[in-house]
UniProtKB/TrEMBL annotation:
Organism (species): Vibrio sinensis
Assembly with partners or alone: Homodimer.
Cofactor(s) the protein requires to work: FMN
Molecular function per GO: electron transfer activity; FMN binding; oxidoreductase activity, acting on NAD(P)H as acceptor; oxidoreductase activity, acting on NAD(P)H, quinone or similar compound as acceptor
Protein name: FMN dependent NADH:quinone oxidoreductase
Entry keyword Plastid: no
Domain Flavodoxin-like fold: 3-190
InterPro entries with a match to the protein in the record: Flavodoxin_fold, Flavoprotein-like_sf, FMN-dep_NADH:Q_OxRdtase_AzoR1, NADH:quinone_OxRdtase_FMN_depd
Catalysis performed (reactions): N,N-dimethyl-1,4-phenylenediamine + anthranilate + 2 NAD(+) = 2-(4-dimethylaminophenyl)diazenylbenzoate + 2 NADH + 2 H(+); 2 a quinone + NADH + H(+) = 2 a 1,4-benzosemiquinone + NAD(+)
């Protein structure tokens, strides 16, 4: 049976369009690991977090807790066959909460390794579906920095089977917003 990891990163809670789309597609589905990165935030990468992620036997309680969280997030990632990421566009980038998740799971020797030819990802055989919502229309423009960022980060840890589902023009009138939501939900339902 397929296990799905859902990463939600919208700051809008119940008003989030990306969360609503994912919730609708997952209704009645089983074996879901849901991680709301806003309700349960991951620490921002700083010197303490970087120190904790290196591990060691002499970590303080605070640093050990950070390392334990990283291990838990990586365990969730490894347990999943399919990863669904809600990636709304905020100021032309993913939410800070989603970037924080990548920062804490990108660990040398754990999710990637360095070789003489460059980094190699250690997380393989995962399917990723990214639901990206936007108030305007940015797909296929230079403003669509989310796609290149997420492809880079996922590829860095070894994940290359990635599908993007766009719900755009959500603030450009109710008719276009409804059409975008319906199309995105149809594509998302087909991903399962």
């Amino acid at each position: 049976m397929t296990t799905t990891l859902v990463l939600k990163s919208s700051i809008l809670g119940e008003y989030s369009q990306s969360n609503q789309l994912i919730d609708a597609a997952l209704e009645g589905k089983h074996n879901i690991i849901e991680r709301d990165l806003v309700a349960n935030p991951v620490p921002v990468l700083d010197m303490n977090v970087a120190t904790a992620l290196r591990g060691g036997d002499d970590l303080s309680g605070e640093l050990q807790a950070i390392l334990n969280l990283s291990n838990q997030l990586i365990d969730e990632l490894n347990a999943a066959d399919h990863i669904v990421i809600a990636a709304p566009m905020y100021n032309f980038m993913v939410p800070t909460q989603l970037k924080n998740w990548f920062d804490i799971i990108a660990r040398a020797g754990v999710t990637f390794t360095y070789t003489e030819t460059g980094p190699v990802g250690l997380i393989n055989d995962k399917k990723v579906t990214i639901v990206t919502t936007r108030g305007g229309m940015h797909k296929d423009t230079e403003r669509n920095s989310i796609e290149s960022y997420l492809m880079t980060m996922l590829g860095f840890i070894g994940i290359t089977d990635v599908t993007f589902i766009y719900a755009e023009a959500l603030n450009m009138g109710e008719e276009s917003a409804q059409a975008a939501r319906e199309q995105a939900l149809s594509q998302l339902n087909a991903a399962f």
